Every structure is written in C-alpha cells, then in structure tokens.
Amino acid sequence: GHLSVVEWLHAQGEPTVAGCTRAAMDRAAENGHLHVVEWLAANRNEGCSPEGVDRACAAGRLPVVEFLFSRYGEPSPAAINQACRGGKLAAVEWLAPRAEAFEEGVADRELDDLRVMEWLHARRPALFRRARVHWSALRAAQR
C-alpha cells in the first residue's frame, strides 16, 4: 500500500524493476490498495493475474474488483466462488450478474456465512443440492 515506494522503484528503471511481475498488482489488489492498483495499471504493463483478481474477490475488495473488471474484462468463474467462500456478500452481489458460472455445489462446502447462503439460496437454489443439513445447522446457530 506504499505508493511512494512503488513510484520510487519505478523511477529507478532497469535493473531495479527488471524483476517486476504481476505479483505487485496481485498483492495490492488482494489487500485493497486501489491507489496502487490504479497507478500500476496506468504505469506498468504486467497487469493482474486471474489469481490476483480471485484473491481480491475472496477478500471482498469491491472497489478494486470493480476497477480490475472495468480495465481487464469479465470475471472468471473462480472469482465469484472465492467471494462466496470468503463470505463477502457485497462482492457476491456485484459479481453475480457479471459471472454466469458458479462452481457446481459451491454451497455444499466451505460456505459458512449465513447472509451469503441466504442470498444464494434465494437466487440459485440448485447450488444447494447437498447443503441442506449444513445450511439448516448454520442458520440455527446464527440466530
């Protein structure tokens, strides 16, 4: 999140920035440092990897996610699944109309956020094939 350091490294030129990779933007995206992501997108060519986008979704970094999709295009199916598993309802709501594919059975495992489960169940009940018992237990525990 230290944009001044990123700018300084960039200003040093070769060989200081010779090893720059997508990892810088990936980490900035995952940690929600929109100002760094925007600067890197404007000043560097490495871009963001699909895994970096997925991690930003899992972390619920919605402003970063919105920027990355405006810049680099459609979300991967993994992006919305990561947001679901991360319990990031705002990211799930934003991604849902943009990502057609949910992973088959995303609700069957690793989904422990009642708000996300209720939201998904209301819109995509087919995702809950085997999750009925888990969902009922979670719902009872959180009330």
TrEMBL record:
This is Ankyrin repeat domain-containing protein.
